[in-house]
Design goal:
single chain, Immunoglobulin-like, six-stranded antiparallel sheet, three-stranded antiparallel sheet, alpha+beta
Length: 221
């Protein structure tokens, strides 16, 4: 009887250790699956004539699965998101600014060109690396319109920026295959930094219309 009890106790301990290891692994798997694949660096909030603009660099590469999808005609949509919040001790943080911008990356087999588009702007590249190099450099993206009174020059506020591959804009079959597949998980964590609101840039004086220009008087003798 004692031997049976000792054996049973040993089995129970082994099973408990086995279950503990699996629970630890399962808790760690989501972290691996959703680990950030895009690194955000050098974020800046700058004053431009239209208001406040963000510039930053993104460091990432497309894995073979995403490269294959693009070359076979699948359009990849990347979304840049920006926020400014003001902390409030008595309530939730106040959201002062929130913007998003979508970039589409596609390949055209007839011209053998990669195209990067945002809004009504398009740019073509002969190589995928050339298109990704431009996508990785975010420059002068206006996120706060001129005249917005919610932000005061000289004020320091927490700003946040991220870039992610938007799976919701993929064709339906690819959305299904992307579920739980780490090859399709391409996103950055929120990059948070303290931004000091710059003073507005003085507006350039409007050019005088041609009719308002006084012609030179040439004196003739």
């Amino acid at each position: 009887m004692p031997i049976t009890m000792a054996f049973s106790t040993a089995c129970s301990k082994s099973m408990a250790e086995y279950l503990h290891r699996w629970l630890v692994l399962l808790a760690f798997v989501p972290f691996l699956a959703w680990a950030a694949e895009i690194e955000v660096s050098n974020p800046q909030l700058l004053a431009v004539e239209d208001g406040l603009a963000v510039s930053a660099d993104f460091r990432f590469d497309l894995n073979p699965r995403l490269e294959e999808a693009v070359t076979k005609g699948v359009v990849l949509y990347f979304v840049a998101e920006f926020e400014i919040n003001r902390s409030r001790w008595y309530w939730l943080d106040e959201k002062l600014a929130s913007r998003s911008q979508t970039f589409s990356l596609s390949y055209h087999a007839l011209t053998r060109q990669y195209r990067l588009s945002t809004g009504g702007l398009h740019q073509s590249f002969s190589t995928l690396s050339g298109a990704l190099a431009v996508l990785s450099r975010l420059r002068n993206w206006v996120v706060v319109d001129r005249g917005d009174k919610s932000l005061r020059p000289g004020e320091s506020v927490p700003a946040a920026l991220r870039l992610r591959l938007d799976l919701n804009q993929l064709p339906r079959p690819f959305q299904i295959s992307a579920l739980g597949n780490k090859d399709w998980n391409l996103a950055s964590d929120w990059k948070i930094w303290t931004a000091t609101i710059p003073a507005p840039v003085p507006l350039s004086p409007p050019a005088a219309p041609a009719s308002a220009v006084t012609p030179a008087v040439v004196e003739t003798k």
